[in-house]
Amino acid sequence: MKIHQKVNKVKLKGKRTREKILKAATHLFAKYGFAGTSMDDIADMVGIKKASLYHHFPSKHDIYNELINQTLKKIIEIFRLSFSSGDIIKDARNFVKQIMFFIRENEEYVKILMRELLDENVPIRKLAQEHVPQILSFGSQILEEGKKQGVFKRDVDPIQLSITLTGAIIIYFIFRPLIEPFIKKPMSSKAIYERISHIISVILYGILEHNKAESDKSKSHTNKKSKDKKAG
Known about the structure:
Layout: H1 3-32, H2 39-46, H3 50-56, H4 60-82, H5 88-105, H6 107-117, H7 122-148, H8 158-174, H9 176-179, H10 189-207, H11 210-231
């Protein structure tokens, strides 16, 4: 085997080990919190020696930071891909849909953030809070663009809107044990789509300029009637 092939093989093995470490850490942080998880716990779950773990990540803080960074990048990527058509209302719907399904597939990320934001371990709270403004800033840019296009009301506060939308999405997953008696299979695609429709109806239509909102609702109603006729 040539030297460069050996080097590539070692790099690939290192990358896979790193991914296993992050996967194990995600599960443990979500279940026990940052303070309740040790480097020994992570090494044991991955099946490697602690020295090997420290080779990939110098500290538990570095692992946590990497998890937060990865999550942030994925969320921002969803923002960028969702808001790309030029139709800001269509894009907003698509964003809510994409982010809801992303969280459904990655519930442990939400658990980690909620655990640490409520924790008294200030350095960890600070670490998470450093990333949040980036997401809020991106949301504010979208809102401002919507105002310029005359789509959104000019008096809508971007921070308040971001908080409201974030709460409407995340609380659904955090409160899952409480809503299960009222919503059958809340994590099913059917239930998720129903939640998306509700968020769009209450929040998106609430910030649209009056004429735009009426026009958009009329189109949605017409499309629904057309689909019903075809189905019949």
